[in-house]
């Protein structure tokens, strides 16, 4: 066992180095994960370019002021702008939902939606959908 003084000497000598090494390692891991996600998004967009115009059932996976993200059964996720919902007046509640003031209909995480693929951009990894009516499987 190391004496208390030897432990302190080791801590003084290598503590700052270890902390900096851990921070650099964590930063590198975050960059790698971000690059991996970006590559996956591009691959999914490439796949979906062959399915533009096709309709799918999905569920809302995210809600923003300008629209909702919908995840399909095949794990592809795309954005549905609020303008694609006809005859509606949706307002973002600032947290988790878009609420239609006319009907009271609420779009929140887990809401099933029927969508159609509008576009897929391989370079950016962006996939856009538009609302295509109620889900077919209820």
Write up this protein.
This protein has 138 residues and is α+β, with helices and mostly antiparallel strands. It has a single domain, classed as Beta Barrel (OB fold (Dihydrolipoamide Acetyltransferase, E2P)), CATH 2.40.50. The protein contains 1 helix and 8 strands, in the order αββββββββ. The protein has one helix at residues 4-48, and strands at residues 55-63, 67-72, 77-81, 90-92, 97-100, 106-108, 112-121, 126-131. It has a 5-stranded antiparallel sheet with strand order 3-2-1-7-8. A 3-stranded antiparallel sheet has the order 4-5-6, with no helix packed on it. Strand 7 and strand 8 form a beta hairpin. The longest helix is centred in the first third of the chain and has 45 residues, at 4-48. The chain is elongated and about 75 Å long.
Q: If helices are DSSP runs of H or I spanning 4 or more residues, what is the number of helices?
A: 1
CATH-defined fold name: OB fold (Dihydrolipoamide Acetyltransferase, E2P)
Summarize the main sheet.
5 strands, antiparallel
Write down the CATH class: Mainly Beta
Helix content: 25-40%
Structural class by SSE content: alpha+beta
CATH architecture: Beta Barrel
Q: What is the CA-atom radius of gyration, in angstroms?
A: 23 Å
Give the DSSP E fraction (strand runs of 2 or more residues). Answer: 25-35%
Series of secondary-structure elements, N-terminal to C-terminal? HEEEEEEEE
The overall strand count is: 8
CATH homologous superfamily classification: Nucleic acid-binding proteins
| Major beta sheet, strand line-up | 3-2-1-7-8
Integer tally of domains: 1
In angstroms, what separates the terminal alpha carbons? 67 Å
Poorly predicted ranges: none
């Amino acid at each position: 066992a190391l004496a208390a003084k030897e432990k302190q000497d080791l801590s003084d000598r290598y503590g700052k180095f270890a902390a900096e090494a851990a921070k650099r390692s964590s930063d590198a891991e975050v960059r790698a994960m971000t690059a991996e996600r970006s590559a996956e998004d591009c691959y999914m967009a490439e796949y979906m370019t062959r399915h533009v115009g096709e309709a799918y059932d999905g569920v809302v996976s995210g809600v923003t002021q300008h629209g909702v993200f919908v995840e399909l059964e095949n794990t592809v996720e795309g954005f549905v702008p609020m303008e694609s919902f006809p005859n509606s007046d949706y307002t973002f509640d600032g947290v988790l939902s878009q609420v239609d003031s006319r009907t009271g209909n609420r779009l929140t995480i887990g809401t099933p939606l029927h969508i159609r693929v509008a576009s897929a951009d391989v370079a950016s990894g962006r996939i856009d959908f538009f609302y295509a009516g109620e889900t077919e499987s209820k």
